[in-house]
Design a protein that fits this description.
There is one protein chain. This protein has helices at 2-15, 43-50, 56-64, 74-82, 86-102, 108-120, 124-136, 143-155, 159-171, 179-192, 195-207, 214-226, 230-242, 249-261, 265-278, 284-297, 300-313, 318-334, 338-350, 358-370, 374-384, 392-404, 408-420. It is mainly α. Helix 4 (74-82) packs antiparallel against helix 5 and helix 11 runs antiparallel to helix 12 (214-226). The longest helix has 17 residues, at 86-102. One of its GO terms (molecular function) is mRNA binding. Keywords: Repeat. This is Pentatricopeptide repeat protein. It holds the Pfam family PPR_2.
Protein backbone atom coordinates (compact mmCIF):
# COMPACT_ATOMS: atom_id res chain seq x y z
CA UNK A 1 0.00 0.00 0.00
CA UNK A 2 2.79 2.37 0.84
CA UNK A 3 4.34 1.81 -2.58
CA UNK A 4 1.03 2.67 -4.20
CA UNK A 5 0.94 5.93 -2.28
CA UNK A 6 4.47 6.82 -3.40
CA UNK A 7 3.65 6.07 -7.03
CA UNK A 8 0.49 8.15 -6.94
CA UNK A 9 2.29 10.95 -5.13
CA UNK A 10 4.83 11.04 -7.96
CA UNK A 11 2.00 11.28 -10.43
CA UNK A 12 0.49 14.07 -8.39
CA UNK A 13 3.66 16.15 -8.61
CA UNK A 14 3.94 15.62 -12.35
CA UNK A 15 0.34 16.54 -13.10
CA UNK A 16 -0.28 19.67 -11.11
CA UNK A 17 1.16 21.84 -13.88
CA UNK A 18 -1.05 22.71 -16.82
CA UNK A 19 -4.72 22.18 -17.44
CA UNK A 20 -6.18 18.69 -17.51
CA UNK A 21 -9.34 17.74 -19.31
CA UNK A 22 -10.82 15.10 -17.14
CA UNK A 23 -13.29 12.38 -16.80
CA UNK A 24 -16.11 11.17 -18.82
CA UNK A 25 -17.23 9.02 -15.90
CA UNK A 26 -18.85 5.80 -17.02
CA UNK A 27 -21.16 5.36 -14.05
CA UNK A 28 -24.77 6.46 -14.43
CA UNK A 29 -26.53 7.43 -11.20
CA UNK A 30 -30.20 8.27 -10.83
CA UNK A 31 -32.10 9.58 -7.84
CA UNK A 32 -35.30 8.92 -9.65
CA UNK A 33 -35.17 6.91 -12.84
CA UNK A 34 -37.59 9.25 -14.53
CA UNK A 35 -37.37 9.31 -18.31
CA UNK A 36 -36.16 12.56 -19.80
CA UNK A 37 -37.19 11.60 -23.33
CA UNK A 38 -39.76 14.39 -23.34
CA UNK A 39 -38.12 16.85 -20.98
CA UNK A 40 -39.59 19.93 -22.63
CA UNK A 41 -43.09 18.87 -21.59
CA UNK A 42 -42.20 18.14 -17.95
CA UNK A 43 -44.29 20.57 -15.85
CA UNK A 44 -41.80 20.93 -13.00
CA UNK A 45 -38.89 21.50 -15.35
CA UNK A 46 -40.86 24.13 -17.27
CA UNK A 47 -41.65 25.94 -14.03
CA UNK A 48 -38.01 25.90 -12.94
CA UNK A 49 -36.94 27.27 -16.30
CA UNK A 50 -39.48 30.09 -16.07
CA UNK A 51 -39.04 31.26 -12.47
CA UNK A 52 -36.11 33.46 -11.40
CA UNK A 53 -33.21 31.87 -9.54
CA UNK A 54 -34.47 33.32 -6.26
CA UNK A 55 -37.63 31.18 -6.49
CA UNK A 56 -36.06 27.84 -7.40
CA UNK A 57 -36.04 26.43 -3.87
CA UNK A 58 -39.52 27.81 -3.11
CA UNK A 59 -40.86 26.15 -6.24
CA UNK A 60 -39.27 22.84 -5.28
CA UNK A 61 -40.75 23.14 -1.78
CA UNK A 62 -44.19 23.63 -3.28
CA UNK A 63 -43.98 20.94 -5.94
CA UNK A 64 -42.04 17.96 -4.57
CA UNK A 65 -41.31 18.49 -0.88
CA UNK A 66 -43.52 15.51 0.00
CA UNK A 67 -41.27 13.08 -1.89
CA UNK A 68 -38.61 11.08 -0.11
CA UNK A 69 -35.01 11.87 -1.15
CA UNK A 70 -34.81 8.54 -2.97
CA UNK A 71 -37.86 9.54 -5.05
CA UNK A 72 -36.61 12.93 -6.19
CA UNK A 73 -36.08 13.43 -9.94
CA UNK A 74 -32.71 14.97 -9.16
CA UNK A 75 -30.66 13.55 -12.01
CA UNK A 76 -33.32 14.52 -14.54
CA UNK A 77 -33.70 18.08 -13.27
CA UNK A 78 -29.98 18.76 -12.91
CA UNK A 79 -28.99 17.42 -16.33
CA UNK A 80 -31.95 19.15 -18.00
CA UNK A 81 -31.22 22.51 -16.36
CA UNK A 82 -27.44 22.37 -16.75
CA UNK A 83 -27.38 23.37 -20.42
CA UNK A 84 -29.63 26.39 -20.02
CA UNK A 85 -28.95 27.54 -16.47
CA UNK A 86 -26.10 26.01 -14.51
CA UNK A 87 -26.95 28.22 -11.53
CA UNK A 88 -30.45 26.77 -11.33
CA UNK A 89 -28.99 23.29 -11.48
CA UNK A 90 -26.69 24.19 -8.57
CA UNK A 91 -29.66 25.48 -6.59
CA UNK A 92 -31.53 22.22 -7.16
CA UNK A 93 -28.58 20.31 -5.71
CA UNK A 94 -28.42 22.65 -2.71
CA UNK A 95 -32.14 22.14 -2.10
CA UNK A 96 -31.77 18.36 -2.26
CA UNK A 97 -28.88 18.47 0.22
CA UNK A 98 -30.87 20.65 2.62
CA UNK A 99 -33.82 18.27 2.39
CA UNK A 100 -31.65 15.21 3.00
CA UNK A 101 -30.08 16.78 6.08
CA UNK A 102 -33.44 18.00 7.41
CA UNK A 103 -34.92 14.51 7.07
CA UNK A 104 -31.82 12.89 8.59
CA UNK A 105 -31.12 10.81 5.50
CA UNK A 106 -28.71 7.90 6.17
CA UNK A 107 -28.41 6.31 2.75
CA UNK A 108 -24.78 6.46 1.57
CA UNK A 109 -25.84 5.88 -2.02
CA UNK A 110 -27.91 9.06 -2.11
CA UNK A 111 -25.04 11.16 -0.77
CA UNK A 112 -22.71 9.52 -3.28
CA UNK A 113 -25.06 10.26 -6.16
CA UNK A 114 -25.51 13.85 -5.05
CA UNK A 115 -21.73 14.33 -4.98
CA UNK A 116 -21.49 12.73 -8.42
CA UNK A 117 -23.98 15.28 -9.79
CA UNK A 118 -21.89 18.05 -8.26
CA UNK A 119 -19.04 16.70 -10.36
CA UNK A 120 -21.23 16.76 -13.46
CA UNK A 121 -21.64 20.48 -12.85
CA UNK A 122 -17.94 20.85 -12.01
CA UNK A 123 -18.89 22.24 -8.62
CA UNK A 124 -16.35 20.57 -6.38
CA UNK A 125 -17.01 22.99 -3.52
CA UNK A 126 -20.62 21.85 -3.29
CA UNK A 127 -19.45 18.25 -3.50
CA UNK A 128 -17.15 18.83 -0.52
CA UNK A 129 -20.01 20.51 1.29
CA UNK A 130 -22.19 17.44 0.74
CA UNK A 131 -19.39 15.24 2.07
CA UNK A 132 -18.72 17.31 5.20
CA UNK A 133 -22.44 17.80 5.90
CA UNK A 134 -22.96 14.05 5.73
CA UNK A 135 -20.16 13.50 8.25
CA UNK A 136 -21.48 16.26 10.51
CA UNK A 137 -24.85 14.52 10.44
CA UNK A 138 -23.27 11.35 11.77
CA UNK A 139 -23.20 9.40 8.51
CA UNK A 140 -19.76 7.88 8.07
CA UNK A 141 -18.41 8.00 4.50
CA UNK A 142 -17.80 4.82 2.55
CA UNK A 143 -15.41 4.07 -0.29
CA UNK A 144 -18.29 4.74 -2.68
CA UNK A 145 -18.76 8.24 -1.30
CA UNK A 146 -15.02 8.94 -1.42
CA UNK A 147 -14.90 7.73 -5.01
CA UNK A 148 -17.71 10.07 -6.02
CA UNK A 149 -15.92 13.01 -4.44
CA UNK A 150 -12.65 12.08 -6.16
CA UNK A 151 -14.56 11.95 -9.46
CA UNK A 152 -16.03 15.38 -8.75
CA UNK A 153 -12.57 16.77 -8.03
CA UNK A 154 -11.08 15.37 -11.20
CA UNK A 155 -13.98 16.58 -13.32
CA UNK A 156 -13.29 20.04 -11.87
CA UNK A 157 -9.55 19.72 -12.61
CA UNK A 158 -8.73 19.70 -8.89
CA UNK A 159 -6.10 16.97 -8.91
CA UNK A 160 -4.51 18.08 -5.63
CA UNK A 161 -7.70 17.53 -3.64
CA UNK A 162 -8.32 14.25 -5.47
CA UNK A 163 -4.96 12.86 -4.39
CA UNK A 164 -5.44 14.19 -0.86
CA UNK A 165 -8.68 12.23 -0.66
CA UNK A 166 -6.89 9.14 -1.92
CA UNK A 167 -4.31 9.48 0.85
CA UNK A 168 -7.09 9.83 3.43
CA UNK A 169 -8.67 6.63 2.12
CA UNK A 170 -5.32 4.85 2.23
CA UNK A 171 -4.83 5.71 5.91
CA UNK A 172 -8.42 4.84 6.81
CA UNK A 173 -9.45 1.55 8.38
CA UNK A 174 -12.90 1.39 6.79
CA UNK A 175 -12.68 3.27 3.46
CA UNK A 176 -9.71 1.79 1.68
CA UNK A 177 -9.24 2.57 -2.02
CA UNK A 178 -10.93 -0.12 -4.09
CA UNK A 179 -10.46 -1.01 -7.74
CA UNK A 180 -13.03 1.69 -8.66
CA UNK A 181 -10.83 4.31 -6.98
CA UNK A 182 -7.85 3.43 -9.15
CA UNK A 183 -10.01 3.22 -12.26
CA UNK A 184 -11.24 6.76 -11.66
CA UNK A 185 -7.66 8.04 -11.78
CA UNK A 186 -6.77 5.84 -14.76
CA UNK A 187 -9.83 7.12 -16.62
CA UNK A 188 -8.97 10.73 -15.85
CA UNK A 189 -5.42 10.44 -17.13
CA UNK A 190 -6.58 8.44 -20.13
CA UNK A 191 -8.96 11.23 -21.12
CA UNK A 192 -6.32 13.91 -20.54
CA UNK A 193 -3.74 12.08 -22.66
CA UNK A 194 -1.26 11.82 -19.78
CA UNK A 195 -0.05 8.31 -20.49
CA UNK A 196 2.78 8.36 -17.94
CA UNK A 197 0.39 9.22 -15.12
CA UNK A 198 -2.13 6.67 -16.39
CA UNK A 199 0.50 3.93 -16.38
CA UNK A 200 1.67 4.94 -12.90
CA UNK A 201 -1.88 4.60 -11.57
CA UNK A 202 -2.19 1.24 -13.30
CA UNK A 203 1.02 0.09 -11.57
CA UNK A 204 -0.26 1.40 -8.25
CA UNK A 205 -3.48 -0.56 -8.70
CA UNK A 206 -1.56 -3.79 -9.32
CA UNK A 207 0.74 -3.10 -6.37
CA UNK A 208 -2.30 -2.60 -4.15
CA UNK A 209 -3.43 -6.12 -5.06
CA UNK A 210 -6.39 -5.26 -7.28
CA UNK A 211 -6.82 -7.49 -10.30
CA UNK A 212 -7.58 -6.40 -13.86
CA UNK A 213 -11.11 -5.62 -15.05
CA UNK A 214 -12.75 -4.74 -18.33
CA UNK A 215 -13.34 -1.07 -17.58
CA UNK A 216 -9.69 -0.56 -16.67
CA UNK A 217 -8.56 -2.03 -19.99
CA UNK A 218 -10.99 0.24 -21.84
CA UNK A 219 -9.38 3.29 -20.23
CA UNK A 220 -5.82 2.05 -20.72
CA UNK A 221 -6.19 1.03 -24.37
CA UNK A 222 -8.14 4.17 -25.27
CA UNK A 223 -5.54 6.40 -23.63
CA UNK A 224 -2.68 4.64 -25.42
CA UNK A 225 -4.29 4.65 -28.87
CA UNK A 226 -5.43 8.26 -28.64
CA UNK A 227 -1.90 9.31 -27.68
CA UNK A 228 -0.40 7.07 -30.42
CA UNK A 229 1.32 4.73 -27.95
CA UNK A 230 0.30 1.79 -30.11
CA UNK A 231 2.82 -0.75 -28.80
CA UNK A 232 1.66 -0.21 -25.23
CA UNK A 233 -1.94 -0.60 -26.36
CA UNK A 234 -1.01 -3.93 -27.96
CA UNK A 235 0.56 -5.10 -24.70
CA UNK A 236 -2.55 -4.22 -22.71
CA UNK A 237 -4.75 -6.03 -25.21
CA UNK A 238 -2.58 -9.13 -24.91
CA UNK A 239 -2.68 -8.88 -21.12
CA UNK A 240 -6.46 -8.67 -21.25
CA UNK A 241 -6.70 -11.79 -23.41
CA UNK A 242 -4.30 -13.68 -21.10
CA UNK A 243 -6.49 -12.62 -18.18
CA UNK A 244 -9.43 -14.25 -20.00
CA UNK A 245 -11.37 -11.00 -20.08
CA UNK A 246 -13.52 -10.76 -23.20
CA UNK A 247 -12.97 -7.33 -24.81
CA UNK A 248 -15.91 -4.98 -25.23
CA UNK A 249 -16.90 -3.62 -28.63
CA UNK A 250 -15.43 -0.30 -27.50
CA UNK A 251 -12.01 -1.91 -26.96
CA UNK A 252 -12.14 -3.76 -30.28
CA UNK A 253 -13.10 -0.60 -32.11
CA UNK A 254 -10.30 1.34 -30.41
CA UNK A 255 -7.71 -1.31 -31.29
CA UNK A 256 -8.81 -1.33 -34.94
CA UNK A 257 -8.74 2.46 -34.97
CA UNK A 258 -5.13 2.34 -33.81
CA UNK A 259 -4.14 -0.09 -36.57
CA UNK A 260 -5.89 2.07 -39.16
CA UNK A 261 -4.11 5.16 -37.83
CA UNK A 262 -0.84 3.36 -38.47
CA UNK A 263 -2.00 2.59 -42.05
CA UNK A 264 -1.20 -1.04 -41.33
CA UNK A 265 -3.75 -2.75 -43.56
CA UNK A 266 -2.29 -6.23 -43.10
CA UNK A 267 -2.49 -6.09 -39.32
CA UNK A 268 -5.88 -4.35 -39.39
CA UNK A 269 -7.33 -7.09 -41.56
CA UNK A 270 -5.65 -9.76 -39.44
CA UNK A 271 -7.14 -8.23 -36.29
CA UNK A 272 -10.60 -8.01 -37.87
CA UNK A 273 -10.48 -11.68 -38.85
CA UNK A 274 -9.17 -12.60 -35.39
CA UNK A 275 -12.25 -10.95 -33.88
CA UNK A 276 -14.45 -12.85 -36.33
CA UNK A 277 -12.80 -16.15 -35.40
CA UNK A 278 -13.42 -15.44 -31.73
CA UNK A 279 -17.04 -14.63 -32.58
CA UNK A 280 -16.83 -11.37 -30.67
CA UNK A 281 -19.10 -8.51 -31.59
CA UNK A 282 -18.19 -6.34 -34.57
CA UNK A 283 -20.01 -3.08 -35.20
CA UNK A 284 -20.56 -0.91 -38.25
CA UNK A 285 -17.97 1.65 -37.17
CA UNK A 286 -15.29 -1.04 -37.26
CA UNK A 287 -16.34 -2.09 -40.75
CA UNK A 288 -16.27 1.55 -41.91
CA UNK A 289 -12.76 2.08 -40.54
CA UNK A 290 -11.42 -0.99 -42.31
CA UNK A 291 -13.24 -0.19 -45.56
CA UNK A 292 -11.80 3.33 -45.49
CA UNK A 293 -8.29 1.88 -45.20
CA UNK A 294 -8.95 -0.49 -48.12
CA UNK A 295 -10.08 2.48 -50.18
CA UNK A 296 -7.09 4.57 -49.21
CA UNK A 297 -4.76 1.81 -50.39
CA UNK A 298 -6.89 0.76 -53.39
CA UNK A 299 -7.30 -2.87 -52.31
CA UNK A 300 -10.73 -3.86 -53.59
CA UNK A 301 -9.67 -7.50 -54.09
CA UNK A 302 -8.84 -7.74 -50.38
CA UNK A 303 -12.30 -6.35 -49.63
CA UNK A 304 -13.82 -9.11 -51.74
CA UNK A 305 -11.91 -11.70 -49.69
CA UNK A 306 -13.07 -10.08 -46.46
CA UNK A 307 -16.66 -10.18 -47.66
CA UNK A 308 -16.40 -13.93 -48.26
CA UNK A 309 -14.99 -14.39 -44.76
CA UNK A 310 -17.77 -12.27 -43.26
CA UNK A 311 -20.52 -14.18 -45.04
CA UNK A 312 -19.14 -17.50 -43.81
CA UNK A 313 -18.53 -16.33 -40.23
CA UNK A 314 -21.27 -13.79 -39.54
CA UNK A 315 -24.08 -14.10 -42.11
CA UNK A 316 -26.56 -12.33 -39.80
CA UNK A 317 -24.54 -9.14 -39.17
CA UNK A 318 -26.48 -7.23 -41.81
CA UNK A 319 -25.26 -3.76 -40.81
CA UNK A 320 -21.61 -4.75 -41.03
CA UNK A 321 -22.14 -6.70 -44.26
CA UNK A 322 -23.92 -3.72 -45.82
CA UNK A 323 -20.92 -1.50 -45.06
CA UNK A 324 -18.54 -3.93 -46.75
CA UNK A 325 -20.83 -4.49 -49.74
CA UNK A 326 -21.20 -0.73 -50.20
CA UNK A 327 -17.46 -0.21 -49.82
CA UNK A 328 -16.82 -2.66 -52.65
CA UNK A 329 -19.47 -1.05 -54.88
CA UNK A 330 -18.09 2.40 -54.12
CA UNK A 331 -14.55 1.46 -55.08
CA UNK A 332 -15.62 -0.24 -58.32
CA UNK A 333 -17.65 2.86 -59.17
CA UNK A 334 -14.71 5.17 -58.52
CA UNK A 335 -12.63 2.97 -60.85
CA UNK A 336 -15.43 3.00 -63.48
CA UNK A 337 -15.50 -0.81 -63.52
CA UNK A 338 -19.20 -0.96 -64.40
CA UNK A 339 -19.36 -4.72 -64.92
CA UNK A 340 -18.00 -5.20 -61.42
CA UNK A 341 -20.30 -2.49 -60.07
CA UNK A 342 -23.36 -4.24 -61.45
CA UNK A 343 -22.24 -7.64 -60.22
CA UNK A 344 -21.53 -6.25 -56.73
CA UNK A 345 -24.86 -4.41 -56.57
CA UNK A 346 -26.76 -7.49 -57.73
CA UNK A 347 -24.98 -9.65 -55.16
CA UNK A 348 -25.82 -7.18 -52.39
CA UNK A 349 -29.49 -6.90 -53.36
CA UNK A 350 -29.80 -10.68 -53.68
CA UNK A 351 -28.70 -11.00 -50.05
CA UNK A 352 -31.52 -8.66 -49.01
CA UNK A 353 -29.19 -5.73 -48.34
CA UNK A 354 -29.10 -2.27 -49.87
CA UNK A 355 -27.19 0.99 -49.92
CA UNK A 356 -26.64 2.73 -46.60
CA UNK A 357 -25.62 6.14 -47.95
CA UNK A 358 -26.85 8.41 -50.78
CA UNK A 359 -23.19 9.20 -51.46
CA UNK A 360 -22.55 5.60 -52.56
CA UNK A 361 -25.56 5.64 -54.89
CA UNK A 362 -24.40 8.93 -56.38
CA UNK A 363 -20.90 7.61 -56.97
CA UNK A 364 -22.40 4.77 -58.99
CA UNK A 365 -24.54 7.21 -60.97
CA UNK A 366 -21.51 9.38 -61.71
CA UNK A 367 -19.67 6.33 -63.00
CA UNK A 368 -22.50 5.58 -65.44
CA UNK A 369 -22.42 9.18 -66.65
CA UNK A 370 -18.65 9.11 -67.13
CA UNK A 371 -18.99 5.94 -69.19
CA UNK A 372 -22.03 7.39 -71.05
CA UNK A 373 -23.93 4.20 -70.17
CA UNK A 374 -27.38 5.74 -69.89
CA UNK A 375 -29.39 2.60 -70.67
CA UNK A 376 -27.47 0.66 -68.05
CA UNK A 377 -28.13 3.52 -65.64
CA UNK A 378 -31.87 3.13 -66.24
CA UNK A 379 -31.61 -0.57 -65.35
CA UNK A 380 -29.64 0.26 -62.20
CA UNK A 381 -32.24 2.79 -61.05
CA UNK A 382 -35.08 0.37 -61.81
CA UNK A 383 -33.42 -2.30 -59.64
CA UNK A 384 -33.18 0.18 -56.75
CA UNK A 385 -36.83 1.19 -56.72
CA UNK A 386 -38.08 -1.63 -54.52
CA UNK A 387 -35.27 -1.47 -51.95
CA UNK A 388 -34.03 2.11 -51.80
CA UNK A 389 -35.64 5.57 -51.71
CA UNK A 390 -33.73 8.17 -53.69
CA UNK A 391 -32.94 11.42 -51.90
CA UNK A 392 -33.36 14.91 -53.32
CA UNK A 393 -29.61 15.25 -53.83
CA UNK A 394 -29.63 12.08 -55.95
CA UNK A 395 -32.54 13.33 -58.06
CA UNK A 396 -30.74 16.66 -58.50
CA UNK A 397 -27.63 14.79 -59.65
CA UNK A 398 -29.65 12.89 -62.25
CA UNK A 399 -31.33 16.05 -63.54
CA UNK A 400 -28.06 17.96 -63.87
CA UNK A 401 -26.36 14.95 -65.48
CA UNK A 402 -29.06 14.37 -68.08
CA UNK A 403 -29.20 18.10 -68.87
CA UNK A 404 -25.45 18.23 -69.33
CA UNK A 405 -25.51 15.41 -71.90
CA UNK A 406 -28.59 16.71 -73.71
CA UNK A 407 -31.25 14.15 -72.79
CA UNK A 408 -34.33 16.33 -72.09
CA UNK A 409 -36.80 13.41 -72.06
CA UNK A 410 -34.88 11.79 -69.20
CA UNK A 411 -34.79 15.13 -67.38
CA UNK A 412 -38.58 15.32 -67.63
CA UNK A 413 -38.91 11.74 -66.41
CA UNK A 414 -36.75 12.38 -63.36
CA UNK A 415 -38.61 15.61 -62.56
CA UNK A 416 -41.90 13.71 -62.70
CA UNK A 417 -40.50 11.07 -60.32
CA UNK A 418 -39.42 13.86 -57.98
CA UNK A 419 -42.98 15.23 -57.93
CA UNK A 420 -44.40 11.80 -57.16
CA UNK A 421 -41.87 11.45 -54.33
CA UNK A 422 -42.83 14.87 -52.95
CA UNK A 423 -39.34 16.28 -53.53
CA UNK A 424 -39.99 18.69 -56.38
Amino acid sequence: MAIAIRVLSTVRKSCCIGSLHFLRNSRHFFFCKQSSSNSKSNPLLLKLLQVPDSRIKTTLDHEISSLRPSQLPCHFLVTSLASSSSNKAHLVLEWVLEKMLKENERDHNLFSELIFLCGKLQNVQLGIRVFTSMEANGVKPTSLVFNSLISACLSSHDIVTAFSLFEIMESSDSCKPDFHTYNIFISAFSNSGNVDAMLACYSAKKTAGHGPDLRMFEYLISGCVNSKNFEIADRFFEEMIISEIIPSVSILETMLKGLCKQKNLGRAEEFFKFVLDKRWDINENMAEKLVALYHEQGRVEMMEELLETMISHCPKTTGVLSRIHCGIVRMYAMLDRLDDVEFAVGRMLKQGLSFTSPDDVEKVICSYFRREAYDRLDIFLECLKSVYVLTKSTYDLLVSGYRRVGLPEKVDSVLEDMKLAGLA
